[in-house]
Design brief:
377 residues, mainly beta, five-stranded antiparallel sheet, 28 strands, globular
């Protein structure tokens, strides 16, 4: 990442005169060179931060903070977000996520989760203000931005059969809904590949569905590929049509699927059984690598995998103890250097250095959060 720049205070030195005293009010903080935005969840806010300061060895949330804003009335929960390729906007989902099902793992009672208030918000990263908000009846889970088509894909959870989860497709500039496609009960993970030619979505108990983002309604695979009793997150390996699926239960592992043929996906690699629960997985930009957090009792395991060959190999396997979390999102910055995992119940952000394997922990706000952080390109 580029380093943070600061404004210099220019002192005019008169000939034969002493330099004037500095006025602290005249020294203004610079705009961040690299902007990060966090979804602060139960804090009902998003925070704008200087990413370089945040990831520095001695960085803290307070030292990196530029501004915190509330997106909506109290009770709405900023869960996950994604930034556009041009760095001008971010899309934020206001949602409780899957906490009704996993809250007991991290000591969150279902009655403590606000009801309603689900929405999709378009943020202007220059003005740091929302420019559009669309309320939703169903619970949004994941967001994927289709930059070439200027569209936003959102997965909606649905519920137990016969309730159906879905994919919503929205215009990026206005958040006008273009189409809504029923998928399966319990829809969770959603991802698009780099080329914009393949999409993947998970029905937790049904399995993996594939589609062409250019025509999702007519290309969504009718028969899902079932990989586990409960599959969750998906991510396309950078520059490929291979999609990685995080299986949460029976088995708990990862699977690599060739999505070249939408109607005949093929499993090409499968990881060993894990002692814990994977939920989401993130691709590393420009490299054939992914990062997957695995929740365990009082800790989290961070797996960094190289999938350039079969079988994949582990680049880093890091255990972070003394932490309470069920990560509902994981992101990687555009340079591929850092992965970010929210430890909401512990009120921490985990920063995973993918070059060195080091882990940094940043204390967050007073309420449960953060759940997601995106770095703008």
């Amino acid at each position: 990442m580029r380093s943070l720049g600061v404004y210099a205070l220019v002192l005019a030195l008169g000939c034969g005169t002493a330099p004037p005293e500095e006025d602290p009010r005249s020294i203004l903080p610079a705009e961040p060179t690299t902007v990060a935005v966090s979804a602060d969840w139960f804090n009902d806010s998003v925070s704008f931060l200087d990413a370089d300061t945040l990831v520095a060895t001695d960085g803290t949330r307070d030292s990196a903070l530029v501004e915190t804003i509330n997106l909506s009335p109290s009770g709405r929960l900023p869960l996950v977000l994604d930034a556009t390729e041009d760095g001008r906007h971010a899309v934020v989902l206001l949602s409780p996520g899957v906490i009704a099902f996993v809250g007991d793992r991290v000591g969150i009672a279902s009655e403590d989760v606000p009801e309603g208030g689900n929405a999709i918000v378009l943020l202007d990263l220059t003005t740091r203000q929302p420019v559009a908000t669309v309320p939703t009846d169903d619970i949004p889970i994941m967001v994927a931005i289709d930059d070439p088509r200027q569209q936003v894909f959102v997965s909606f959870f649905g519920g137990a059969p016969p309730a159906m989860g879905s994919i919503g497709v929205y215009d990026l500039n206005s958040l006008r809904e273009i189409t809504r496609i029923e998928v399966a009960p319990f829809v969770e993970g959603l991802a698009l590949n780099d080329a914009g030619t393949r999409g993947a979505v998970i029905g937790a108990t049904a399995g993996l569905h594939l589609f062409d983002p250019d025509d999702p309604a007519n290309t969504l695979s009718s028969t899902p590929l079932r990989l586990a009793d409960d599959s969750s997150g998906v991510a396309f390996v950078a520059g490929t049509d291979r999609v990685v699926v995080a299986n949460s239960v029976n088995p708990s592992n990862y699977v690599v699927v060739d999505a070249t043929d939408l109607d005949n996906p093929a499993v090409v690699d499968e990881g060993a059984e894990l002692d814990g629960v994977p939920y989401m997985v993130a691709a590393v930009p420009t490299r054939p690598e992914v990062v997957m957090p695995v929740t365990a009792d009082r800790g989290i395991r961070l797996l960094h995998l190289d999938l350039s060959a079969t079988p994949g190999r582990v680049l880093h396997d890091v255990q972070v103890d003394d932490i309470v979390t069920f990560p509902q999102a994981i992101t990687v910055d555009p340079t591929g250097r850092y992965a970010f995992v929210g430890a909401a119940a512990s009120r921490e952000l985990i920063i995973f250095d993918l070059e060195t394997g080091a882990v940094h922990r940043r204390t967050w706000l007073n309420e449960l959060g953060p759940t997601s952080l995106a770095v703008a390109p």
